[in-house]
Amino acid sequence: MIRKHFAGFVASALAMAVTAQAFAGTVTTDGADIVVKTKGGLEVATTDKEFSFKLGGRIQADYSRFDGFYTNNGNTADAGYFRRAYLELGGVMYTDWAYQIAYDFSHNSGGDNRSEDGYFDEASLAYNGFKPVSIKIGRFDPEFGLEKATSSKWVTAQERNAAYDLVDWTNSHNGGLGIQASGNVGDSLYGSAGMFAKDATNQDKDGDSTKQFNLRAVFAPMHDSGNVLHFGVNYAQRDLSDTAFDGRIRSRLGMRGVSTDGGQDAGTNGNRLTLAGANNTPAGAYDTDKAWGLEAAFATGPFSVQGEYVKRTVEADGAAYKDIKADGYYGQVAYTITGEARGYKLGKFDSIKPQNKQIGAWEVFYRYDHLSADDDNGAFANVGDIEGKVHNVGLNWYANEAIKLSGVYVKANVENAKNAAGDDSGDGFVMRAQYVF
Which residues form a coiled coil (predicted)? Predict the structure, then answer.
């Protein structure tokens, strides 16, 4: 006998153990019945939906080879690493409370300098009793952009667009905590607003953390799988006054293997494009960091097209420094050869589910990324705008709803910047095996 009020999700965990040991028969309770599901992870829930418990995760194993600008000497290097290795636990307690915990064993999915022992990518608690508004608190990524809203399991290319590198702080928790309110109006409008305290390594002179707020709004008059018309706008701002920080704006140009946080990479020969800013930027140099973003998408049947534009301004504090400005965009087209449509939930794309269990679903795509920055300070005072351009051509095979195999060819070109060997272009490919449970 399993009692429903035995601490909610603890009862669910016990139910799993009882079910696993049972040779025959049915698990019963003195309250609502319990349902156990094993498709897409292990889930236990009461039929009245008051409690639930789901254990899942994802593993993404990548291998890449690259040359030219991607390495300092221009010669070919390779990298093999776990891009993500998540164990995820989530569920519902007492109907209105939801929790989500995601631990990344690869310590390679966020920003730089993650713990070698992994870290909590998310640990949050949400209250949903004010439907359709949800209030979430804890560690989680701020919302900024369509590709970031879409799970890393189901973004089309292995790496999200390079333009995000210009505003990397906008949609990463950076080891901090936050509170966010989000909600929808009908099936076409979605919005969120959040406040975050983050950047433990970038505290001000008093030890006060960096404060940031984010806003996102989405209008989707067409919002069904294979029938999508999506528009969105984003804004983020953080306070850098009296704060010493790493002010470099850098990009891997779609090739994570040049410098990974976990696993093998190109080592000291890996080359990342620096577009603007400087490391060890002193306190008092800059005041406010602002970022805008626009997003749009359209899908009809197996065809989809999407794009985003971002703009950032780092405002100088005083006459000794000048503003740093950066902007970027991407455009992507994708087509599912086998006819399936990309899933869509208000504000984000979702998975492609194969119709034919034998051959799976096959998707081809092309994406163009463009990013540039203007910095008239220090080393960049006599250099024109530094630009990066990245072409991505790829193929995805959704073997089933749990396994996805991908390959992408990446071609990068830069302007007003070269590696140590004088290269301003580079080539590479990335292969990924993904397992989701």
Answer: none
